[in-house]
Amino acid sequence: MKKVLILGVAAVQMDAIAQLNRMGCETWAAAMAMDGPGARIARHFDQINILDEPKLQAHILRHQIDAVYSTGSDLAMPVACRLSEKLGLPHFVSSETADICNHKDRMRERLTRECSGNIPYQVMDSVQQATVGFPSILKPSDSQGQRGIYLVGSQQQLESRFASARQFSRDGRVIVERYIDGPEISVNGYLVDGRLRFLAASDRVTWPEYTGLIHRHVVPARAVGRAEDSRLRDTVLDACRRVGIQNGPVYFQIKLEKGHPYIIEMTPRLDGCHMWNVLQKAAGVNLMKLVFEHLLFGRVDELQKLRAVRPMELVFWCQKPGSQMERGVFKLPRDAVEHFYYYQNGEYVRPVNGKFDKVGYYIRKL
Fold it and tell me: Which residues have C-beta within 8 Å of that of residue 341, sequence separation ≥ 6?
């Protein structure tokens, strides 16, 4: 029986813990508090800050953990990779690669100007004159959860939002990127020995009043035609090679401007939107199961289940952080094939993006 430690206990880490439970693994979870649904289903839970590497290392050695991993968390991935390197545990990418993807400035630098999917950008640690033009996107260089992201249309707006964006950066830096005008898609991929064996794009529909905050995913992506699909594959594979991703899952946020794919975000992990769930129903491949069979046993036969994608959507229910969960206010369509609530009625919604946070979702066929 493999012992696997998952860093974090939010709903997206709960998905990983549940999959490991189904595989007969002994599940361990660590987080600052027992405040997520993953803590309730893990066989063991320990209150450890997932950024406290010495404490996590001692915990892994004490309990003879076989693998440490996470899903949906850019903060957790570099930690999991560093610990795996130090302790000789299985991992897909180096800690350097995970760290590059966790720092938007380093990611842009590693992609280089020769990467067709890169975007003109500027890194600031204090207010400066923007050189990328307006409109542009202002965001922290190293945060997650869509925190501190602003669409700015002038130097005056940039300066007024600068401090707000910077407060979410652990390095105290922000990045300004040229605004890409076009539809936004999410892309889940999977690599085996440098080959892109799986790629699925979904339309990423955001809340109009909250820049970048996801409302729903639609598969297959209606914004991607045959020509765009070819460019998309080339862009994803090129970017992975440039940052050093050869094996395991990859997740991209991409915008298409006149059919050309531009990389907004990329990371060597599964997304934080339960897309593995809708993609299993739509395309046959269980990416969550694939990740752990590949990581723990070197098996990738799950990829043989791939079929033509059936149209489906995943829709998020959201509430203001700090408000009390009220399941009754959300309408569940009769044709929903699955749904999940993050909170019980009366529980307070924890701030993640600090604006409009996910409290549940449902999946339905289209």
Answer: 317, 325, 327, 359, 360
Q: How far apart are the first and last CA of the chain?
A: 40
Q: How many Cβ atoms from other residues are within 10 Å of residue 153's Cβ? A: 11
Q: 37 with 92: CB under 8 angstroms?
A: no
Kindly tell me the sign of the dihedral angle through the C-alpha atoms of 81, 39, 296, 252: negative
Q: At what angle do helices 226-243 and 95-102 cross, to 10 degrees?
A: 120
pTM of the prediction? 0.93
Alpha-carbon span 253 to 271, nearest angstrom: 10
The two tokens of residue 1 are 């029986």
258: left (phi over 0), alpha (psi -120 to 50) or beta: left
Strands (E), the chain: 3-7, 26-31, 44-47, 67-69, 121-124, 136-140, 150-152, 174-178, 184-192, 195-206, 214-219, 248-257, 260-267, 312-319, 336-341, 357-365
Q: Report d(CA 3, CA 67) in Å as an integer.
A: 7
Nearest-angstrom CA–CA distance, 61 and 74: 24
Residue 59 in contact with residue 35, Cβ under 8 Å? no
Can you list the residues of the chain whose pLDDT is less than 70?
Answer: 144-146
Give the pair of three-digit tokens for residue 354.
């600090």
Residue type, 180: I
Q: For residues 155 and 231, is the Cβ–Cβ distance under 8 A? A: no
Residue 277, token pair as written in the block: 């769930």
Concatenated DSSP letters of 22-58: HTT-EEEEEESSS-SHHHHHSSEEEE--TT-HHHHHH
Query: What pLDDT, in 10s, does the model give residues 127-147?
Result: 999 999 999 999 998 876 567
Q: What's the pLDDT at 145?
A: 55
- CA angle at 62 for the pair 60 and 63, rounded to the nearest 5°: 70
- pLDDT, residue 159, reads 94
- Phi, psi angles (nearest 5°) of residue 151: -90, 120
What is the amino acid identity at position 255?
K
Query: Alpha-carbon distance 119 to 126, whole Å?
Result: 21
